[in-house]
Amino acid sequence: MTVGIDKIGFYTSPYFIDMVDLAHARNEDPKKYLIGIGQKKQAVIPPTQDVVTMAANAAQKILSEGDKEKIDLVIFGTETGVDNSKSAAIYVQSLLGISKQARSFEIKQACYGGTAGVQMAVDHIRLHPESKALVLAADIARYGLNTPGEVTQGGGAVAMVISSNPRILEVEDKRSFHSDNIMDFWRPLYRHDAVVDGHYSNSIYADFFQQTWMDYRQKYHRTIDDFRALTFHLPYTKMGLKALRSIIDQSKHPEAILEQFEASRMYNALVGNLYTGSLYLSLISLLSNSEALNQDDLIGLFSYGSGAQGEFYSGRLSDQFDRSQLKTDMDTILSERSRITIEQYQEMYQTFLPLNEEDKLFDVSSDNSCFVLKGRKENRRIYLTKNGSGDAQSLD
C-alpha cells in the first residue's frame, strides 16, 4: 500500500506588487530583488483574509463531499495563528463542513509546521488506510515596511488531502531530521511582524540542509542522481538555489537537476514567502511546470523551520498524476491577480485586527473569495461565506 498526497490546492491574495516597483520605492536597484533575491512579484494579503480563510479557500477547491465524510484528521500548520488557544483547524473544519468525527488541531514550529502535518497524516493513513486526512499550511509573512526583509514577504495557503493510493505523490518512509535551539527568527506574541537575523538565518538554513542531506544519504545509501528533482522551502527563491549549488557537484547530471529546480521556483517567485506553505508551493510549481517528470520519479523535499527544525524526505510521483489540470488552475489563479501600487500596498499592510480587544469590521464587498474575514466583535472573529453573486452569509 502506498500513502501520500492525493490532492493539492492553493490560494493566495488577488493582489500583488511588482518587485521593480518596490525597488524603485525603496531606492534600490531592481536587480537586487530580481536577481539577488530571486523574486519577481509579492502577494499582498488584504485585511479580509487571514490564515483560516486562505486555508479554507485553498481546500474548498479540491474537496468532494465524499472527501469531507472520510476525512477524520485535520492538521493546520501555521505560525500566523488566530488564537493562542483555539486552533485554526477547528474553524476550517466547520467552514468546509468536514465530518465532526475528526481530530482537528494546529501545529506550530515556524515554517516546518506543514511538513510535520504531512508526516503525521501519512503515519495516520498507514494505520487507517480507509481514512483520509486534510493538511493545511497557511501563513502571512511580515517583516515590516522599509526593512531588509520586506522583499521576502508574501502569503497564501496550500491544502493537501493525504490518502492511500495517492494520485500525486507517494511519500516514502525515508526521512532525516535535525533540530537545535536557534534564535534566527521568531515572532513574539506582542508583534504582528517577525524578528529576524537574516544573515544568521541563511547560514543556519544551509547548515540544516547539509546535515539532513548527509544523514539521509548515509541512512538510505542514495545519491543526488537517484533523484529526478529536489524541492526546497523557499522563503525567497535564491535561498534554495544556494542550498542546491552546495551539493550540485555530487551529480553526474547537474544541468538536469538545476533545470528541475527552475521549474520548482517559478510560482514562489511570483507569490513570495508562505512560511509553512513555501515548500509545498515549490512542489506544486515543479509538478505544474516540469515537462520531464515521469511516473515513479523520485523527488526530494527539504523542509526548514527557524528556531530550528529541518527535515529531508522523499516521495515518488504517482502513475496516476496528470499535470494539465493543476497547471491550468495555478496559471489561472496567478494571472487573474491585480497589480497594486506601493501606496495601496502600504495602506493594506497597515490595516489589520489590532492586538488589543478592540472591535473592528472590514468592508468585504471587494473580496470575491469564497470565504472572507469580516472582522472581530466582542472578541469573536466573524467569518463569512460568499455565494456567486457576491452576497455574504455568516458562518458563525
Automatic annotation (TrEMBL):
Catalytic residues identified in the record: 79 (proton donor/acceptor), 111 (acyl-thioester intermediate), 233 (proton donor/acceptor)
Key words, A-Z: Acyltransferase, Transferase
Keyword Transferase: yes
Binding site for (3S)-3-hydroxy-3-methylglutaryl-CoA: 29, 143, 242, 273
GO BP, sorted A to Z: acetyl-CoA metabolic process
Keyword presence, Acyltransferase: yes
UniProt domain Hydroxymethylglutaryl-coenzyme A synthase C-terminal: residue ranges: 175-245, 260-350
Chain coiled-coil ranges: none
GO molecular function: hydroxymethylglutaryl-CoA synthase activity
Limits of the Hydroxymethylglutaryl-coenzyme A synthase N-terminal domain: 3-165
A Pfam family recorded for this sequence: HMG_CoA_synt_C
EC number: 2.3.3.10
SUPFAM superfamilies per the UniProt record, alphabetical: Thiolase-like
Family (UniProt): Belongs to the thiolase-like superfamily. HMG-CoA synthase family.
Protein name: Hydroxymethylglutaryl-CoA synthase
